[in-house]
Design a protein that fits this description.
The structure is a homodimer. Chain A is built from ten helices and eleven strands. Chain A is globular and about 60 Å long. The first copy, chain A, folds into two domains: about 160 residues, Isopropylmalate Dehydrogenase, CATH 3.40.718; about 120 residues, Isopropylmalate Dehydrogenase, CATH 3.40.718. Helices cover about 45% and strands about 15% of the residues of chain A. In chain A, α6 links the parallel β7 and β8. The first copy, chain A, has an eleven-stranded mixed beta sheet with strand order 3-2-1-4-11-10-5-6-9-7-8, sandwiched between helices. Chain A is of the alpha/beta class. In chain A, α7 runs antiparallel to α8. In chain A, about 55% of the residues are buried.
Chain lengths: ~325, ~325
């Protein structure tokens, strides 16, 4: 397999944690990795190939402008490696909007795809994660785009989690088709008539972390708010529970309780999910969260490999191409 | 103080838990309560006044239609008791949409208010709750309505939690004013120029359960999705943690851990919040969650009393009236 292009400069803990993750990915997964970034900033590349890029796009930079003006940035160069057939996938923990823009502008869209979407895995204890799509690529959406998000999310859930016929729900504020915004009502009508997906109707916020649905479709504004709301509430609870259990009052019972909770905490850990997938661009692109550790990078590289080898892009092309009346490939 | 009108028929556990909550509210709070509902269904009213209403609006009924056609329903009659000066407030755990419609149609809007909004308290460990507004009254909103939600949410946070100058954030997908939908960008510009509130700019989903913001303003679609997402994730975690701690493997340490977590669990318990407040109607109206227990009803009645005695409606009238250039009363 071609190597994975890893944006060494992206993320709150870049480049050290990213480079450390790259070394671990090579050792643990046997995957080749190309580090993309400023050679002077990459202290310890060892035997990894460094693809030089002189510029960096920061977490707070305006995505469209940054990608347009910083053509020699690590993000843009990583996307070019995929476009040019030198890498099988790209992974970045940097600016999400700029990652979307780089991938979109350099790799291009899959034929027939109106807009790309971010598919974020939401952990569900005792079950496969729920794929939330769009988790933030497109703040304002049209019904037809959401139908494609449903198709692409369905293909992704099948490829990633081995589900035969993923259940697709439309996020709304009531189960009835009459509930929600005009966007939701129009999308509901379209999804009910879309072949090739298993549409189970509207779902609500409380269903996202349940085993009752596999893919939850929404616009990128609502999806991003939901994703960050979940992150915030889980973080807050983990901190609160940790505080209680590590208090002197808790003593031995607290220590033991944290041991018992470790498997649950690990399943909820954002570092364990392998990152979010950008769907609809003509290449595999993984967006790891901003505070990614080396472990998060190892997991993201593993998913990148699986999706490149598993033919995700080809499957997306077939699903969307079939739906727009194009030839099956 | 005038009695609180309690919809005895509303909620998944009505009428038994509601009536039980009414008795406890009288005993524990010294507040008078009028039970509104079908006398034949209220087994044990004891010395409480029962205001008869022959019809019931179910949880799944279409709100607008139900309120229009069932004029002798417990919800509509409860709202009329407030309108007619016979009750100081109404409380219902029934159909949220129908509660909003009943209050709106029978009590009317506060002069100058464009649309009512549901203000839901989101628990924050170690801090006062964050007021999320609108949590579901208006699925699609205009910027001017959101400005009023900010004003009303601010007054509510001050009256309810004693905050002198509540910090108001606008829910978006990035802190920058340029992020979000057209609705968010337009609202951001208006809020920046609105006197009488302390606007701290955009906030993200992860800030809702933090002590950094007191009032989070959003449209009713996003707000309702957020509220139910939080409910779902907290429920799921509580169940998962409970399962771990009560397993044979956990033994004594598990039992002790649950004891230690009890104060945190209680703070997160939806029954403890006192319910959501409908802001903008000309009377105090509390929407308790559908699965309300007797304890939830006691807490809701306590908040109803506090808000009626504390002059919430008068304060809302002054805030919105001042902003629209009307006379201060």
């Amino acid at each position: 397999m071609l190597p994975v292009a890893l944006d060494a400069m992206g993320g709150d803990r870049a480049p050290a944690e990213i480079v450390s993750g790259a070394h671990r990915a090579v050792a643990e997964l046997g995957v080749q990795v190309i580090l993309v970034g400023r050679p002077a900033d990459i202290d310890d590349p060892r035997d990894l190939e460094v693809h030089p890029a002189s510029e960096v796009i920061g977490m707070g930079d305006d995505p469209a402008r940054a990608v347009r003006t910083r053509k020699d940035s690590s993000l843009v160069r990583a996307a070019e490696l995929v476009r040019d057939g030198r890498a099988s996938a790209m992974v970045s923990a940097g600016n999400t909007g700029a990652t979307v823009a780089s991938a979109l502008l350099r790799m291009g869209r899959i034929k027939g795809v109106s807009r790309p979407a971010v598919a974020a895995p939401i952990p569900v204890p005792g079950s496969t994660p729920t794929v939330l799509v769009d988790a933030g690529a497109m703040a304002e959406c049209q019904p037809g785009w959401l139908v494609q998000f449903a198709q692409m999310g369905s293909v992704y859930a099948a490829t990633r989690y081995g589900l035969e016929s993923p259940r697709v729900g439309l996020l709304s504020i009531g189960e009835e088709a009459s509930k929600g915004t005009a966007l939701v009502k129009d999308t509901h009508a379209l999804l009910s008539d879309t072949p090739g997906i298993r549409f189970i109707g509207n779902v609500e916020g409380r269903d996202i972390m349940s085993p009752e649905v596999d893919v939850v479709v929404t616009d990128g504004f609502t999806g991003n708010v939901v994703l960050k709301t979940l992150e915030g509430s889980l973080n807050m609870l983990v901190r609160s529970i940790g505080g209680v259990m590590l208090s002197p009052e808790a003593g031995q019972a607290g220590t033991r309780a944290l041991e018992l909770l470790a498997p649950l905490a690990e399943q909820m850990d954002p570092d364990a999910t392998g990152g979010a997938m950008l769907l609809g661009v003509d290449g595999v692109c993984i967006i790891s969260h901003g505070s990614s550790s080396a472990t998060a990078i190892v997991n993201a590289v593993a998913v990148a490999r699986d999706m490149a080898e598993g033919g995700l892009v080809e499957a997306l092309r077939a699903a969307v191409g079939a739906a727009v009346g194009g030839p099956r490939r």
